[in-house]
Amino acid sequence: MLRKKYHIDQKFSTLLQLTGQMDAEMLEIDHLLDDEKLLELVEADLSERSPHSTKTGRNSTPVEVILRMIALKHLRCLSYEKTIKNVNKSLVLRQFCRIYFHPLPSKSTLIRWSNQINEKTLSKINQRLTQIAVKLQLTKGQKMRTDGTVVATNIHFPSDNSLLLDGVRVLSRLLYQAKETLTSGSKLNPRLFQNRHRTARKISRNIDSLSQARSQLGRQNREQAYRRLLEVTQASLRQAQKVQILLKNSTEPKAEKIIRAFAIFLPRVIQVIAQSSRRVLRQERVPAHEKLVSIFEAHTDIICRGKPNLSTEFGHKVWLDEVDGGLISNYRVLKGNPHDTQQWVESLDQHLQIFGRPPKQASADRGVYSHPNENYAQKLGVKQVILPKGGYKSKERDNFERKRNFQKGRRWHNGIEGRISVLTHMLWIRTMFIQNQ
After folding, report:
1. pLDDT < 50 regions, the chain
2. Contact present, 323 and 359 (Cβ < 8 Å)
């Protein structure tokens, strides 16, 4: 049964006074997390884990403990495992997480609970923290700067042969698991579970060695190798589809888990085969929205921002709105690769919704500039619109952008690049921790 919090342990508080206290920064964060509305937002998501989470079952880890442990994980850029170890060894962190002398949740438990918190709730939590910051007079929302970045997905470069190889590797692994489940007590053709990963890997390496070939013969050999790799992948796919039917008729408890995995990966392998055939054999240009760039991270978008050192990026475009006081007042994970000019209006509308009034100064990069965007901000009541124009500028426009207030606004806007750098660095550190778990 879901619990909100543990009762305050007076004995623990007395012991903590003898051993040590939180530093000033941790103490401020501790007070912020005492907000009841934050707990209510998280509790609403955690209560949906099962139909009777709030009424029956054994007592769960309290909502307050989960919220504070997740906050500590992100504040110190720790893995789930190291978060639990650090809290277990420190009385100060036990007090911060409100766990006192109670046993800590396991790593898997904490991961399950944290995955239960959805995107909309995280956005509401960020808005609530912004409201608290306004009450504490940490920001007034007088200035707003907005910019976007790309958060890369942790995938290898998506070449056609590597994606086909990934498909064969995953299907071969699932076929091996299915073999252990189905062959106990029954006789099935061993070729039904044939592992084709080694063959596919050899062909894929051959394709890589032929990728630099400029001669007609080299290109023909490369195309022939691709045909062989496609045949191997299609053979693995046919095996998997037959085994999937057998698993559906099986009463083994492990079969259900393998069926779910097949349901995820079979459509992706089919899509990879189709797009590889179109691109390599038929020489078609496949639109970006129809491409799959990873078997494992199928949500990954193809993003082209025109950067000289990064022609193509793979991940998600994230848009950030920052106000004076260094607070990220709003963020959005964008779908696909929309143009930057489309984000200006939504950023201003969100600012108006959060603070109840438009900012006195709003700024963005030249990629956001458009005449309608500039007009929209002025009609909304923004006194200083800092949108530098790219390309050719008239003499009048050039003189406008050379004015002192415009240049001062541009210098203040440049600070968001540092904010993005810090946030991206934190995401990179977390990725490294997750990989090493």
Report:
1. 428-437
2. yes
Q: Kindly give, in sequence order, each residue whose CB lies less than 8 Å from that of residue 151, ignoring residues fewer than 6 positions away.
A: 315, 316, 318, 424, 427
* CB-CB neighbours of 149 under 10 Å: 21
Paired sense of beta strands 384-386 and 143-152, if any: unpaired
What does 54-76 look like in DSSP terms, one character per residue?
A: TTSSS----HHHHHHHHHHHHHT
Pair type for strands 361-363 and 143-152: parallel
* Cβ atoms of residues 128 and 40 within 8 Å: no
Angle formed by the axes of helices 160-182 and 255-276, nearest 10°: 160
**What contacts 24+ positions apart, CB below 8 Å, involve 191-195?**
192/239, 192/242, 192/243, 193/239, 193/243, 194/239
Rounded to whole angstroms, how far apart are CA atoms 210 and 181? 40
Q: Which residues touch 44 (CB under 8 Å, ≥6 apart)?
A: 121
Contact in structure between 202 and 232 (CB atoms under 8 Å): no
**247-275: pLDDT as tens digits:** 988 878 888 999 999 999 999 999 999 99
pTM of the model: 0.81
Q: What is the pLDDT of residues 177-217, one digit of tens each?
A: 998 888 765 677 888 899 999 999 999 999 999 888 788 88
For residue 58, CA distances in Å to 48, 179, 209 come to: 16, 37, 59
